[in-house]
Design goal:
Oligomer: single chain
CATH architecture of the largest domain: 3-Layer(aba) Sandwich
Number of strands: 7
Radius of gyration: 18 Å
Largest sheet: 7 strands, parallel
CATH class of the largest domain: Alpha Beta
Number of domains: 2
Bound molecules: nicotinamide-adenine-dinucleotide
CATH topology of the largest domain: Rossmann fold
Number of helices: 9
Structural class: alpha/beta
Shape: globular
Order of helices and strands: EHEHEHEHEHEHHHHE
Strand content: 5-15%
Strand order of the largest sheet: 3-2-1-4-5-6-7
Length: 263
């Protein structure tokens, strides 16, 4: 039996926040599909070293809140590989605080990480795409980018704006053959973000059950979304199969953003 041909052979990708969770799963899947992958993260994790080495994934330190850091990550990947085809703006942080508790630095931290970095990452990548035959950007938003949530208003604002950024830049750059899409995950297990939320809950098991129950498909399957399921959506969006797909916000949230689920 022969295996399927790699779909991204010869392509080059930069993935922010690639050391953990969704970013790491995406880095590994794209590399398995023949892509040369460069990840940037402000917390590189030694446990990734061996797996990344096997797949040829290059990891470097980068704080996406710093525009110079981001520019350097993207320019040096393009210079090293001689081209750039894909950018995944994935680095993100949660902000579970009510409006009256939010400080200016909370706001700056969440908006700089979740929104500003996607704009300036795109700004840095676009000139490299223009040297070739276009490119593809995927922004990892959230189901909070489709429907805001009461428990984390600033996070919701950042992700709603990220979906807006996706549509706006998609409109501007279709003429350059650059496709820009968003993925909107619901609760994803085995991620730093989810573990932080569960660790903060008074009863971890109960909190996990509540989160699963809020997404109809997650409830039916009895589990959260796996990071690999988000990576599979990114793979589709950056592949040639999605040549006509731009400006979408693809919900992978087990139906969480559809409406109020049945009791
Ligand atoms: P995660 O914590 O496992 O991964 C986030 C990664 O981003 C980490 O490696 C972290 O070090 C990195 N990062 C954070 N701030 C950074 C910065 N300033 N500079 C560089 N790297 C930085 O969590 P995850 O769930 O994999 O998160 C990935 C994306 O998915 C985020 O944008 C998040 O908002 C989004 N998301 C997650 C879920 C979920 O349930 N886990 C749901 C919807 C959306």
């Amino acid at each position: 039996m022969t295996s399927a041909p790699a779909t991204l052979s010869g392509r080059v990708a930069v993935i922010t926040g690639g050391a953990s969770g969704i970013g790491r799963a995406t880095a590994m899947l794209l590399a398995e599909q023949g892509c040369r992958v460069f990840i940037g993260d402000y917390r590189l994790r030694s446990e990734n070293h061996q797996a990344f080495q096997v797949l040829g994934i290059h990891a470097s330190e980068c704080d996406v809140r710093n525009v110079d850091d981001l520019q350097h990550l993207i320019d040096s990947a393009a210079d090293t590989a001689g081209r750039l085809d894909i950018l995944v703006n994935n680095a993100g942080i949660g902000m579970v605080k009510q409006t009256t508790e939010v400080t200016e630095s909370d706001w700056d931290n969440a908006l700089d990480t979740n929104l500003k970095a996607a704009f300036f990452g795109s700004k840095a990548a676009i000139p490299h795409f223009l040297n070739g035959s276009g490119g593809s950007i995927v922004n990892i938003a959230s189901n909070a980018g489709l429907l805001p949530r009461a428990h984390d208003p600033v996070y919701s604002i950042s992700k709603l704006a990220l979906v807006g950024l996706t549509k706006s830049l998609a409109l501007c750059h279709a003429k350059d053959r650059i496709r820009i899409n968003a993925v909107c995950p619901g609760p994803v297990g085995d991620t730093g973000m989810m573990n932080d939320d569960l660790d903060a809950a008074p009863d971890r098991v109960f909190a996990e059950q509540q989160i699963i129950a809020a997404s109809p498909m997650a409830k039916a399957l009895g589990r959260m979304t796996d990071p690999a399921e988000i990576a599979a959506a990114v793979l589709y969006l950056v592949s040639d199969a999605a040549y006509m797909v731009t400006g979408t916000a693809l919900a992978i949230d087990g139906g969480k953003s559809l409406g109020v689920p049945p009791r």
